[in-house]
Write the structure tokens for this entry.
Amino acid sequence: MRVPARFLPLPAAVAASVLLTGCFSSTGSGDADADGKRIRVAMLQPPRSGLSPLSDDAFKLSRWSTAETLVKLDAEGNAQPALATEWTQSGKSWTFTLRDGVTFHDGTEFTAEAVVNSLTKAATASPKPRILDGVELTAKADGNKVTVTTATEDPLVPQRLSSPQLSILAAKAYKGRTVDPVGAGTGPFELTKVNGTSSAALDRYDDYWGEKAKAPGIDVKFVPDGTARAAALRSGEADIVEAIPVSQAAVLDQDLVTEVPMPRTNTLYLNTEKGAFKDVSLRAAAREAIDAESIVKGVYEGRADVAEGLLGPALPWATELRSPVKRADAGEPNGQAITIGTYTDRSEMPEIAAALQQQLQKAGFKVKLDVREYANIESDVLAGEFDAFVLSRATVLDSGDPAAYLYSDFASDGTFNLSQFADKEVDKALKKASDTKVGDARRKAIMEAEAAVLAADAAVPMLHERVIQGDADGVVGAAHDPRERELVTADTYVN
């Protein structure tokens, strides 16, 4: 049973604060006294791949505004200019016009050849960045333009190029099989120092092509312990703290806490291929038995949103386009035995599974739980070894578009089809959504595909999670990004 944070003994909070004392002393070259305050950031996960942009570490580079991409996304997921100012499509090829007056942090010029080099390194990496999973991509320079060509016509190329994993770095970053982003980006802050998995430092880049950063630099500390991160905000040791645990958010000054709906849905995937949930009426019975509101209140302490569908409030157009779904009638479980799997890597998952066990047993199922570390359970769930699986799943992946997630999870040949789901009509709806050009028509097709999945009860969406971020008094302009691509921008500073 989880002990609420407000009942934790005071020494635990004090100890967490002590862990951070002195850890935000400036390691950058900027003169903080003469040119404003450096921004102290406490982050959840340390680098896993030496801050290579070809890994998930790319999102750290993006959140520090040091590495940039050709394209960025607006709040609706539409592609907007960044290092590229415009683009046109001709069949399988997209031609991007590059921004003038850009330099890398090492002083070298931002050129079409540099863009081709970065994109080629990503496209030929092993493994590839996940945004290019299943995508064959080549790039060619022509003056101040770069033409990107894919093996098949792809309406999402601009959105793909917005992924932090396709950041454009100077040639010096690429040394053999490694990618070193220190001093190699184009953003308003230059990465100057990385201390393994403990800290990093960035200084303002005064030759930035856009608006000059308002802060002289950023000092980053990696703090995996959630209690310690919260304590850093409470004690004044950190200015910005990411990923505050729900258990800690309630005991902080609420004026310092911001919650933003994120494109992440906590879902119960039901095995439609074998076992109890091969029967659509028993899938319906499970869906009707689940009380998501009580899970939001009990596990998330109200800091999440009850799901109406697979796509949540982080995509406001989803609610606007969603239509009622006709589902099967619920059958009688009559003591059917089921096994629900989940993982320990996210602390709330075992709690949710325990709540589901109680709810489904009350409805007439006999429920067993199997809870392990994700690395030890993924192969079994992909192989269909469970009747149901609880997963916290990002719904827009790296492109900012949910069609790829829906296809991956619910197409007959989907690469992450935990429900072992196969339905020809659903496949047609998913393919239509994937192939439709970006815009209102694509969004409508996506919602039709969502409705087709929900009608079959292949999965039961329960809740949508929120980003919980702490900003100390005096912090101005910190980004609150549901996609977690931005955190400190050129406009962020500390009074």
